[in-house]
């Protein structure tokens, strides 16, 4: 192969990991190719994840607000009527605009885009098999694996994307089910459960553990569950689904206590299986370069380097939170390391947001983690009930909680539940990235009246000088 057809970097997978890696590589002047089998760039996030789910969350929230909140503040409109076909079209139009934007970014940064399935075929070689079966071989000084993840299947429950769906099916239902059972009280289950509840479904969430959203600060998760219950969600915690039988009258589920015991039956029009995601490496040719995945299927890495020289991996396919912005951080750091720069990601500073109403957002350690670490700590907490902007907007559920080192005042974790807190967690990320103390934020002027004042007041609470009431 001629020298000019040898790529500095070949990236397999066109999601947030892959396309951000491609952009950064292009910016740094590396000769770059990206290989994506879906036929569209953007990966899970843009096509069947973050973006379509947020489009439906936004639209369904407006629908519910128009139906239930307008009259209270003196806006009299006829009861809103759902046009699901139009809602789905608007969602798809947004997705298409975003994925086209990614394609434009590839051109702008001189990245060559190959449509097809990428397989590593030994050191420095990637074959691309197009949809027509044609195969071409690319030579690469560096290969970056960014093949992402897929839904974890639930034994005994076969997804047909009609009556039993995973997240992809739940983003495109053709009618609002009367009843929906969500298996798994994680982020997908609660976000997509919210969408269909707002549009009219009776939603029951079946969760294996005795709490919702494992990984979330427990005090916050307890408040979150209380709010969701008030909205009409039903929860069956400490329960497992052992079988699902689709039929003309819906899906009949067999449930059992997680610890074993008497079975019970539950019927629903639609069942959403959302029990987690697992790394995707099918047909990737890892064996050709001697890479073995770990027992859960993740590609082991150290600073994004795999066991094979010249092969790197980023995003959902490696350990760490399975989030788009984490994949993006991995991407930039990995490419900078390839280019001889100093790339680094601090996973303790990757924020999480659940885009329900109210939203939940956090960064850093949970109170349980801080307690377990043995570090002496202080907390400051401020409820939205006492925040003037939240009060005038009639959105008073939730709070902000700061956890700071008792000796140094360094912020260790911040947890928020409330309206639009996903937009407010960023200032805490900056604070923590600079090793900030709660007093740094407490002494920073915030605009009034805003919800962000609750963040400042919670920081003030660490030293007991909260002022607003
Ligand atoms: P992916 O986005 O999965 O991209 C991998 C790509 O690689 C895919 O397009 C796949 O087709 C392609 N591919 C795989 N194998 C090959 C191959 N051999 N050859 C060529 N191409 C291949 N995260 C957030 O941060 N915020 C959110 O709000 C959010 N919402 C979500 C909602 C849902 C319903 C779901 C399912 C996920 C959500 N996520 C969210 C998670 C987010 O989508 C992922 O963390 C993110 O997409 C991971 O990026 P990635 O690049 O590692 O992988
Ligand atoms: P998750 O890991 O968030 O939650 C899965 C839930 O299912 C857990 O509560 C778990 O205990 C439960 N569970 C596991 N096995 C079960 C079983 N057999 N029966 C009943 N419950 C069971 O996974 P989820 O919701 O599928 O989402 C996958 C990932 O996608 C998330 O971890 C997150 O990284 C990403 N995501 C992020 C979003 C965001 O940032 N807003 C939105 C949606 C997804």
CATH superfamily of the largest domain: FAD/NAD(P)-binding domain
Provide the domain count: 3
CATH class of the largest domain: Alpha Beta
CA gyration radius, whole angstroms:
24 Å
End-to-end separation in angstroms reads: 71 Å
CATH architecture group name of the largest domain: 3-Layer(bba) Sandwich
Note the total helix count: 13
Disulfide bonds: 45-50
GO cellular component, one term: cytoplasm
Binding site for FAD: 54, 118, 147-149, 316, 322-325
Active site: 448 (proton acceptor)
Report on the structure:
With 469 residues, this protein is an alpha/beta fold. It has three domains: 3-151 and 279-347, FAD/NAD(P)-binding domain (3-Layer(bba) Sandwich), CATH 3.50.50.60; 164-275, FAD/NAD(P)-binding domain (3-Layer(bba) Sandwich), CATH 3.50.50; 358-461, Enolase-like, domain 1 (2-Layer Sandwich). The chain has helices spanning 16-27, 43-48, 50-68, 84-108, 167-170, 187-198, 218-231, 324-338, 367-373, 388-392, 425-433, 438-442, 453-461; strands spanning 6-12, 32-36, 111-115, 117-120, 125-129, 135-145, 149-151, 164-165, 179-183, 202-206, 234-236, 239-247, 250-257, 264-268, 270-273, 277-279, 311-313, 352-354, 359-364, 377-383, 399-405, 411-418. Strands 1, 2, 3, 4, 5, 6 and 17 form a seven-stranded mixed beta sheet that branches. A five-stranded parallel beta sheet has the order 8-15-9-10-11. Strand 13 (250-257) and strand 14 form a beta hairpin. The longest helix has 25 residues, at 84-108. The mean pLDDT is 97. The structure holds flavin-adenine dinucleotide and 1,4-dihydronicotinamide adenine dinucleotide. 1,4-dihydronicotinamide adenine dinucleotide is lined by residues 154, 183-189, 191, 206-209, 214, 240-241, 274-277, 321-323, 353-355. Pfam families: Pyr_redox_2, Pyr_redox_dim. Residues 350-459 form the Pyridine nucleotide-disulphide oxidoreductase dimerisation domain.
């Amino acid at each position: 192969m001629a020298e000019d057809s040898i790529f500095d970097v070949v990236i397999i997978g066109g999601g947030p990991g892959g396309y951000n890696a491609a952009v950064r590589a292009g910016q740094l002047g590396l000769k770059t190719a990206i290989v994506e089998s879906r036929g569209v760039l953007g990966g899970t996030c843009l096509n069947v994840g973050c973006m379509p789910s947020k489009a439906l969350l936004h639209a369904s929230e407006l629908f519910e607000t128009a139906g239930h909140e307008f009259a209270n503040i003196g806006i009299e409109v006829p009861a809103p009527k759902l046009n699901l076909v139009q809602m789905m079209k608007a969602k798809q139009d947004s997705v298409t605009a975003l994925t086209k934007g990614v394609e434009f970014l590839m051109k702008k940064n001189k990245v060559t885009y190959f449509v097809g399935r990428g397989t590593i075929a030994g050191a420095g070689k990637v074959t691309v098999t197009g949809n027509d079966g044609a195969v071409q071989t690319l030579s690469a000084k560096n290969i970056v694996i960014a093949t992402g993840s897929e839904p974890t299947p639930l034994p005994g429950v076969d997804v047909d994307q009609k009556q039993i769906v995973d997240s992809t099916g739940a983003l495109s239902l053709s009618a609002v089910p009367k009843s929906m059972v969500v298996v798994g009280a994680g982020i997908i289950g609660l976000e997509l459960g919210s969408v269909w509840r707002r549009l009219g479904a009776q939603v029951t969430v079946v969760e294996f553990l005795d709490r919702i959203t494992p990984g979330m600060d427990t005090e916050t998760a307890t408040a979150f569950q209380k709010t969701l219950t008030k909205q009409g969600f039903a929860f069956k915690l400490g329960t497992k689904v052992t079988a699902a039988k689709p039929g003309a009258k819906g899906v009949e589920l067999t449930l059992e206590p997680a610890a074993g015991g008497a079975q019970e039956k539950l019927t629903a029009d639609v069942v959403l299986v959302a029990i987690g995601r697992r790394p995707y490496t099918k047909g990737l040719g890892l064996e050709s370069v001697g890479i073995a995945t770990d027992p859960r299927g993740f590609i082991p890495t150290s600073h994004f380097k795999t066991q094979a020289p010249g092969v790197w991996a980023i995003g959902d396919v490696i350990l760490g939170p399975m989030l788009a912005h984490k994949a993006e951080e991995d991407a930039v750091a990995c490419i900078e390391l390839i280019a001889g720069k100093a790339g680094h990601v601090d996973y303790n500073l990757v924020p999480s947001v659940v885009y329900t109403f109210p939203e939940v957002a956090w960064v850093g350690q949970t109170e349980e983690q801080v307690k377990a670490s043995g570090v002496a700590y202080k907390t400051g907490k401020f409820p939205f009930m006492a925040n003037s902007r939240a009060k005038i907007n009639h959105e008073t559920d939730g709070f902000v909680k700061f956890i700071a080192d008792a000796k140094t005042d360094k912020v260790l974790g911040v947890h928020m539940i409330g309206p639009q807190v996903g937009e407010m967690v960023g200032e805490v990320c900056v604070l923590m990235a600079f090793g900030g103390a709660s007093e740094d934020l407490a002494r920073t002027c915030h605009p009034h009246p805003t919800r962000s004042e609750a963040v400042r007041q919670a920081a003030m609470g660490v030293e007991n000088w909260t002022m607003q009431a």
